[in-house]
Design goal:
homodimer; alpha/beta; Arc Repressor Mutant, subunit A; six-stranded parallel β-sheet; 14% strand; elongated; DNA-binding; WalR-like (chains A, B); phosphoprotein (chains A, B)
DNA sequence: ACTTAAAAATGACCTCAGTCACTATTTATA
DNA sequence: TATAAATAGTGACTGAGGTCATTTTTAAGT
């Protein structure tokens, strides 16, 4: 039996949600709150497994509340339920650790499925929201292909430059002389058609050199 | 009526999918292919609205096929259907423009819903896949809060440094003297507790200075 | 065995970056 | 009004960054 906290400022909507959720025998709406502040104090006093949260609320909004809840009760699952197909909100909420994002236009059955999914470690995204959010996220994860061949040493040095290290620090880390590091950098700059170490650092970050490829 | 192409190497699975899909009156499985190559040649000869694609196939896999299809027929919707809850595949497929990603463990009804969602511009992600993929994507989109106050000028200069410009170039762009640019950079480096322009460039990229906030 | 390329190193050389001190104007706020 | 902060500038100094020529060793490929 999951103890659910409803956070929603409109009483009628709250009542409706309660009726829908309690059609499922696993769900028991044990508490209700009208805003983020109330939600926090309920969490401080009672054991809650799941929070169903509206975004736009007076006092403290859903994003803020999500942050605070996830900070203090990381195990509590949070599903965001909102009227607006707003990718900005969705992204913020997910960053704060929300376990799902549904629109109020969804069917009741979807809502219950989403609760189950959340409780089982899933993350339910409303299809339309996902379609808006994913392109933006994917754009950040793109690493342009490296068009030039860099040797292992050169990659190691490029990585260091991308971490903001000086030639001296790089020399020490790789057990080389400063002159050698300089020479390598000259070679790298020629190969990559870049001008100086700053541009090389930018190159390293954009190509995620030194990280696990996504 | 949506004309659907099934791409799946196992005949039995293909048959099963066809039966499931055609329970929906809007869906007509007009063509079938055993691998990516066959899929491409079918698309070249017939009008297709929707492709349901397996990932692991002989000859040409689903990712590759997705790329080629989206390149040549960008309007065709593609839903990936796979046995494996593999976030690596999911990410690649989505990058190539796939309109959804479902596991074969999903219920038949979900599959049909996903087709509808795709055709209406949605993007259906299997909950478990989403739970794996989203944290990785969000990590890239994180911009740590800027802990120091930078003035407008300082932000403008930081942005330029993050684009790999020299002091001279910055001076010209902002109609300042080189000396002034240097002075600003000294101030910025003090405020941000950084050492040189390379570290500042890294700072600028990590904080996405000069971009629209996500 | 011969060739090619990566890797390592040295020294000379020059430029740009960054610091510092000091000045001056504008703007906002206590 | 006085004070602080942002903005803009100059000149002098130091050092790190980057280039180039040249050498040596090692490893891989034909």
């Amino acid at each position: 039996m999951w103890r659910v906290l409803l956070v929603e400022d409109q009483t009628i909507v709250r009542q409706g949600l309660k009726v829908i959720l309690e059609q499922d025998p696993n769900i028991k709406v044990t508490h209700e709150a009208e805003n983020g502040n109330q939600a926090i104090s309920i969490l401080e006093q009672h054991i809650i497994d799941f929070v169903l949260m509206d975004i736009r609320m007076p006092e403290m909004n859903g994003i803020e509340a999500t942050r605070l809840i996830k900070r203090n009760w990381p195990k509590v699952k949070i599903l965001i339920l909102t009227t607006f197909n707003d990718d900005e909100y969705a992204l913020q909420a997910l960053k704060e650790g929300a376990n799902g994002f549904l629109l109020k236009t969804s069917e009741p059955k979807k809502l219950i499925e989403a609760v189950h999914s959340c409780m089982n470690g899933g993350l339910t995204l409303h299809d339309e929201v996902a379609a808006k959010v994913m392109p933006r996220l994917l754009q950040y994860s793109e690493h342009p292909a490296i068009s030039v061949e860099l040797s292992q040493r050169e990659l190691a040095i490029t990585k260091c430059v991308g971490q903001g290290k000086t030639n001296k620090e790089i020399a020490e880390e790789l057990h080389l002389s400063i002159g050698t590091v300089k020479n390598h950098i000259t070679t790298i700059l020629h190969k990559t058609d870049l001008r100086d170490r700053t541009q090389l650092a930018i190159f390293a970050l954009k190509h995620h050199i030194g990280e696990q490829p996504l």
